[in-house]
Amino acid sequence: MTEPGADPHTRELLTFAERLADEARKLLTAAADVGADAVRPDIKADNSYVTATDRAIEYRLRELVADAYPGHGVLGEEFGAHGLDADHVWVLDPLDGTAAFVAGVPVYGTLIGLARHGSPWLGVMDYPATAERWTGVHGAFARRNGAPVRTRPSTDLGSALATCSNPDFFAASDADRLARVRERVQYTLYGASSYAFGLLAAGRTDLAVDCGLKPYDVFAPAAVISGAGGHVSDWAGAPPSLTPTSTTYLSTSTPALHREVLPLLR
């Protein structure tokens, strides 16, 4: 469901992004139902998991984008990038949380972002196992299953609930920085993959500290979180980029909380 107040161009592209999410959900649900063969992973060069399902979903989404918007660029996890200098670039993670998918933990899904002039603009985060979908437009609005969501107005770091997708992705120096945040917050939850970003947008958590993320991990969540009132940057405070120099990211429910946490990560 798109936002009635959005301009026609935004509505058109968000509707198309949800069409991509529908297609991805269909393929991902079918693969999960098949069983062991569909979820058997290969190991990529960076030691992460990939399955035939990751590749099949991204291939299909790229087909749909090429048919509908041949002038748009695409950056995907499995098949690389083209047209990064285009005004609009689709940023695709066909199966975020592949390890969770392999293990049957229901926090895996598909991330569909659309960059405009190189910055996060539209985002769709779809999770078939829990029948949840977040949609958002940067700085404008965010929804969960069609209902508006807002980040909570967090100002007290000492009572904050933080998330971290996987501390194993952190280098030693980065882990020290994570420890600074962990010592200041009330509690830190691990292992929710990108689903944690939806929880942040929906007002269930206060901040997320992550390392090892690529643009396809970040662009859709950044649009949704911003649309819900939150803020996303790398640990130096720079906004997400299609050609980043960092893989470390901080997402917070409010700009004020962001300003408080950033010095702990620098």
UniProtKB/TrEMBL annotation:
Name the UniProt record assigns to this protein: Inositol monophosphatase
GO biological process, one term: signal transduction
Pfam family, one: Inositol_P
Annotated InterPro entries: Inositol_monophosphatase-like
Co-factor(s): Mg(2+)
Alphabetical UniProt keywords: Magnesium, Metal-binding
Binding-site list for Mg(2+) 1: E77, L95, D96, D217
GO molecular function: inositol monophosphate 1-phosphatase activity; metal ion binding
Binding site for Mg(2+) 2: D93
